[in-house]
Amino acid sequence: MDESSDSVFGLSEDADFPLVRMADVLFAERMKNTIREWRDSLLSKGSSSSEIKQISTDPSQRFQMVFFKTRPGLALSDFTSRQLRVIKAVTKKHFKDLAYIRVAGEATSPQQLIVYTDSNDDRNLLMKEVKDGLRKDAEMKVESAVGFRHVIDLLSSKRKLIVGHNCFLDVAHMYSKFIGPLPSTAEDYVSSLQKLFPTIVDTKILLNANGVFRQTLNKSNTSLSRAFVSICPHIALGIKTSSLADRPCVEVEVQVDEKRSSNWNSGAKHEAGYDAFMTGCIFAQACNHLGIDFTLHVLGGDLVKETKLQNYINRLYLSWVSGNVIDLSSGKCTPDSSASSNLKSRYQDISFPSIILLWGLPSKLKAKEIRACIAQAFGPNSVSSVYHLDESAVFIQFSKPELVSKFLELKETLSRNSDPISVLHPLSNILNGENTHAATYDVYQQICSSSISKKLFADQAEAVGIKHKTVSSRAERGKKGNQVFDEETDVRMFDEKADDLMSSPYGCSETDRSAESFYLDEALASK
Asked: What is the pLDDT of residues 362-411, one digit of tens each?
């Protein structure tokens, strides 16, 4: 932050180090004699270089004769930090033609040197060289730590056209991992994203907006792998003909290293590199069908200016299930009539007050088994959807919001009692004794908002501080006078601890905890 300050690089001349201990006084005197002996041997006209080296080398190898920037010096090793401070103070006080410096060593720790200079100008030049070297070393460490962020910055600075397939979440993850925390509102996110990547094309939008493509893809199936086979059969299957009218196939050449060649040749879908390859092939073939000379524009670097592509730029699906499309240029969301109606009809609209989260379930428990158990207790139409968050956690959406409180109350009653009725109750098959926890959707949001991140949700909840077995929503607790279901644990303790942990703005993004996560399984399948 202050490049003019020598203290940034450890070159500042500290005040005299106080020699308050007898050990420091004796050590300082011994170091003064050793350094003077070495310095005098340098200035002695009759001393040879071998004699100088012999004088400056002790049996313990703590002093070594070296040359730094063509200047003779002593390398110091195996000294404590306190001893080095004493040596630095001795050098400064008693030897005006010697400079104590710290430089980057071959290992991780810096190297301490005493270097001879023949004038004040030479001394100033030495300090500048040391400072420049330390700065260069620091910059190299920063550059190395930045890593893949360089690629993201390069794409942004060159204003490259970004092409993805159903890529709203991909772009959001790229932003959060390499740019910064996701903004709290969609408007702020879109505005920031446009400054970084002004042109993004979603090939799923491109395929669904064109009648010929929809017909080729059986009107609804635009998953990446199937679209690749249908649009680019000459690449995917080695077939020389194309199903897209009379348009010729776009030839694509790619070089793959030997390590990945086996996966590549077998068509390793969902392997990141091959997915990107399939997306690029689909985009090139789609441009060709639209009458865009793909090769010419790529060489010219002006593909984003092509008028035939403008209707498809900066439009992304928020969710393939809901069919809503967001315009990144304006931030407005509109329903897409070409979205897959058969997927939407399979689900009711998401109702957050009707959702509970169960975690700590037996790992082999299936969604249909959970649905069946709840149906026995609350009726055959009580559950709308069951979705596995991970191997031991599920979302359950009830058909009515009031079933949430009834389920939580019944679950807590069964957890407290061990009488025959409780043991034989249908829900006992999924409650897994003492291990199963339950909460409303707003508690799930609070847990995900924590800066703590664990692979399994059960571990995440435990790390955040949930110890009790059942947590109701804040609104529901307010109605009940903030009383809790679990007699042994007060929910208020959780509220206070969780609120502290969750105050960080760098928690789970709105994207991660949005309604779309409820249908992630289907979204991934369609992709």
From this structure: 877 888 888 888 998 898 889 988 988 888 899 999 999 999 999 988 88
Single-letter amino acid code for the residue at 242: S
Name the band, by pLDDT with cuts 50, 70 and 90, for residue 504.
Answer: very low
As a whole number, mean pLDDT of residues 327-351 equals: 68
Q: What's the pLDDT tens digit per position in 418-451?
A: 777 777 787 877 776 667 888 998 888 888 888 8
Across the beta sheet with 393-398, what order do the strands follow? 383-390, 393-398, 355-359, 437-440, 470-471
Alpha helices (H) along 367-401: 367-378
Contact 354, 403 (CB under 8 A): yes
Helix (H) or strand (E) holding 470: strand 470-471
CA–CA gap between residue 33 and residue 87 (Å, rounded) = 11
Q: Is 423 exposed, middle or buried (0-12, 13-18, 19+ CB in 10 A)?
A: exposed
**How many Cα atoms are found within 13 Å in the side-chain-facing hemisphere of 31?**
25
Chain centre distance of CA 162: 19
Residue 317 has phi, psi (to 5 degrees) of -75, 125
DSSP β-ladder status, 470-471 and 437-440:
parallel
In DSSP notation, 261-322 reads HHHHHTT-TTSHHHHHHHHHHHHHHHHHHTT--HHHHHHHT-GGG-GGGGGGBTEEES-TTT
Q: Which residues of 375-386 are buried (b: 16+ CB within 10 A; e: fewer)?
A: eebbeeebbbbb
| Cα–Cα distance, 253 to 235 (Å, whole number) | 10
Where is 103: in which H helix or E strand? strand 98-103
CA-based radius of gyration for the chain: 34
* Cα gap 481→314, rounded to integer Å: 49
Are residues 42 and 55 in contact, defined by beta-carbon separation less than 8 angstroms? no
Q: Which residue has the tokens 């170091």?
A: 31
Distance CA 284, CA 298 (A): 10
Nearest to residue 361, comparing CAs of 385, 388, 381?
388
End-to-end CA distance of the chain: 46
CA distance 134 to 479: 63
Read out DSSP for 171-199? HHHHHHHHT-SPPSSHHHHHHHHHHH-S-
Average pLDDT, the chain: 76
Give residue for tokens 């590549």.
Answer: 264
- Element counts in the chain: helices (H) and strands (E): 24, 14
Query: CA-CA distance, 511 to 318, in Å (whole number)?
Result: 9
Task: Region of 159 please: left (phi>0), alpha (psi -120 to 50) or beta.
Answer: left
CA distances from 4 to 8, 13, 99, 312 (A): 8, 14, 19, 51
